[in-house]
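TICKET #2291
ISSUE: user wants both folds in one file
ATTACHMENT 1:
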Amino acid sequence: MSYTVDVSRADKVWHVHVVEIDRVTQARTLAEVPEMAIDLIYIMTGESDAALDVEVDLPETAAKHLAEARRLRRVESEARSAAATELREAAVELKRQGLSMRDLGDAIGVSHQRASQLTSGRA
């Protein structure tokens, strides 16, 4: 069975609430949460192979910053992918124009070995 585990900070410990059995335990660190939840589930139900869906309740301001960081990471990943595609296209076009791999590499700011990879489709 799958269990929802709501985790919230309380003083110096984390409260670990297993929703489906409506019981609470605590953990000293977030890393301990899954083990503590599984122990609690086993004690209350006898089930030893429970799947967990852990949801950590962070302060609103921290959660907003985290959400923005995740969004920016997605944007960064998409931009890196687009930049790599454009770099490959530039390399292929310059190769078509007859540039040597050394000149091609110098023109686009990579080594001649990398230029060769970009133009051969091994990039």
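ATTACHMENT 2:
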Amino acid sequence: NEEDGVKTREIDGGSPSEIDRLSSISQTGSDSGQQSFRESEAEGEVSDVFMDFPLDKKHESVTRRTLKWNKPEGLLMAVGFLGAAVSGAIEPSFALLFAETFVTFQQVMLGNEITDKARLITGLMSAVGFVKLLAQILQYWLLAITGERLTRRVRRALFEAMLRQEPGWFDRPENQCGILTARLANEAPQLHKISGQRGGVIVESLAITIITIVLAFYYSWQLALVNMAFLPALVFVGALQVRDVESHVGEKAVCGSEIVQESLSAQRTVASLCLEGHFYQAFTECVKEDKGTKTRQRISYSIVNALAQGIQYFQNAAIYYLGAVLIDGGTLNLTSMFRSISVANFGAQGLGRAASFLPDLNSAITSGKNIFRTLDRVTKLDVTRGDIPSNPIEGNIEFRNVKFAYPTRKTVQVLKVCRREKPTA
């Protein structure tokens, strides 16, 4: 019979149960080859992964499944998220202390004694910095530990899933030995960007945003509304900056790469045929064709960057003008104005720094899909089927009319009506 282009063996006089017994015999040899791997699982690192987190739920998102795989480190992740929340609350807290310095300068102008107050403010600033240090250590250290444990767990499970596959799976170009080892080395570490690292950045950003908005509205809701009015423009321009930078880097990396790779991979052939000039000319033409695109990119990036820098000055001008109007009208005092402005500025800076640590989720999601696709795949040649004989089998084994071909090379038969006899050892 034939299934998926693979012609299976036909055993004369053999029933399905006998075929299962033959496959179970091959299992005994494979079990000894994986004994060391199983022993490492018995130490409590991977043995319960497949039991606790089923791999057949394809409807689940990559993020949800990754969090399930990171469930054993739930306590460490919770403490790391707590450190991220405290780290996010530090930014607006420091802004309030910074605003108090304006009151101190005002008292200096009035000739008041401010030494004790200055010492108090500087001491509180130092304490806030120390708390920030501890919070950052908890956040990145504990979340890094959870990420490394997740990487080890996923890498072991992915390696076991690869070992379960049938020989035809390894014959595919995307499943060659070098590619599979590269997947074990590169794809597994990508998942920690989805769970702990991403969650820490989100928690820190939420803490900064919520506390900043509350304090800004508390001290002056008018100034807070003006700040929020400029927020969509800042976000839009920031997104354009990121897109232009990524597009610029991507085009630069891709242009002519195929020509370079082709010429260097066959450098001896190129030298023997004297084709160095041909490839150099082709690469030069590729660069010339891309010159216009690069020029337009530089112009657009300059305009977007100028807008990003200019909007910040327009925002400050509007805020200080409105603050002067409110102070002149008696509805706002100088201390409250500086507190509201400082909280908004420090909150925006802290949010930008937190967002800069946000990992590249596109590559992480792609790696996660590839990993879970391999883990969910059911092998077409399950060596665990059949009964394991309690006593050694004695008898002659004969194979008749064995036909075999790999699924990726259906027209090339490896075995053509092969016949083999194996006498009793």
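RESOLUTION: both attachments delivered.
EXTRA DETAIL ON ATTACHMENT 2: Residues 62-220+346-380+400-418 form a domain with the ABC transporter transmembrane region fold fold (CATH 1.20.1560.10).
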